[in-house]
What we know:
Layout: H1 4-13, E1 21-23, E2 28-31, E3 40-46, E4 51-58, E5 64-72, E6 100-101, E7 123-127, E8 134-148, E9 157-171, E10 183-185, H2 193-199, E11 206-211, E12 216-221, E13 230-233, E14 245-248, E15 250-253, E16 256-257, E17 263-267, E18 274-277, H3 278-291, E19 296-297, E20 307-309, H4 313-317, E21 322-325, E22 331-334, E23 338-343, E24 346-352, E25 354-357, E26 361-364, E27 372-377, E28 382-387, E29 392-394, E30 397-398, E31 431-433, H5 455-461, E32 467-469
Amino acid sequence: xxxxxxxxxxxxxxxxxxxxxxxxxxxxxxxxxxxxxxxxxxxxxxxxxxxxxxxxxxxxxxxxxxxxxxxxxxxxxxxxxxxxxxxxxxxxxxxxxxxxxxxxxxxxxxxxxxxxxxxxxxxxxxxxxxxxxxxxxxxxxxxxxxxxxxxxxxxxxxxxxxxxxxxxxxxxxxxxxxxxxxxxxxxxxxxxxxxxxxxxxxxxxxxxxxxxxxxxxxxxxxxxxxxxxxxxxxxxxxxxxxxxxxxxxxxxxxxxxxxxxxxxxxxxxxxxxxxxxxxxxxxxxxxxxxxxxxxxxxxxxxxxxxxxxxxxxxxxxxxxxxxxxxxxxxxxxxxxxxxxxxxxxxxxxxxxxxxxxxxxxxxxxxxxxxxxxxxxxxxxxxxxxxxxxxxxxxxxxxxxxxxxxxxxxxxxxxxxxxxxxxxxxxxxxxxxxxxxxxxxxxxxxxxxxxxxxxxxxxxxxxxxxxxxxxxxxxxxxxxx
Length: 480
């Protein structure tokens, strides 16, 4: 987080052209299905000359890293992925005239004490809890190409220096298609892109994510949301604001609010499903089951415990919403908390898209964010939300989607391409920090959506564990 003096300097630098920024390739994001672990991705441009990368959006970690000077990286050829029509790129700092390595004596180099010389490039390693998954390499500063969202701007292109992980060696899930072209950490750490942009005075210290029902999305830096949006404060963890944790006061199924169902939860776009502490999870599941008028069943290969038979869209429309209550009468309503199960002839049932965690901190994943403009206001340390179709930024102002200056963005694959039978199947997982060391529950990161994917295909990829980052300083090597 910025110090108060940094915030004052930031406010002095802010101008009307830099209230909202988005990637130069456009603000649109998309979930790319089975090939890419069912996460939301966005095209970004890095370096001089600029090179494009398709990075996963992860509010649960800090570092923006891309495959770079590869020793051990995921395949980048489009032939490996059914969703792509062109190859992915590898970053080479030596070919970018705007790049420079961070030295070991840099304030953001956590591994500085292990360096032989203060002037050598700063190494980083991020380890993850399962499947020997990690990324490692050197920290670099280079240009991230952005555009201003303000109408009438005479110069709407922005080149912002940010910290980048030159990921030369990946392991585990990162070699099997999860974030093969890199990952953008949007967390509270000083190395994250939102932190870099705010400290330099480009935008207010805030950003927003919006995920629509069609699995598209939007990303905006500097967005502080609407004046009438609902909100709740972020909570510290062991005295420090290290990630986006909020406090739920009560959990409700439709109009039935359950006793003793308050809990702390991480808000994380890098988690495809939502997890509740085990005791609260059971109370919610029991009440949901009481209100659903359908035959209970189970689907082999799926992790959900609360599933029902149904081939009727009418029955699905009667599913009760889940509501989380916060302080000052703020509420977050999930109108459709289900995951629809498809067979060869269409829908065969649905499940409550919740899972249980043994820890005392839950996770609100991107499936419960659908239909909301989620505002991560880091300056005021609060989460804001308002209903949105991800097209209107505020009160009739259209969200900027296309690249500036009439440029053409990298095409995101059509939704239909996600269901192609060819290509490389990837376990639905992504790396992120976990706020609770006590949780040992296997977590499966699969995005919400009514994908026409066979039961056999999902059963074959679902048993994989998630790749959650260990707590601790992000650039120091940690023992597994």
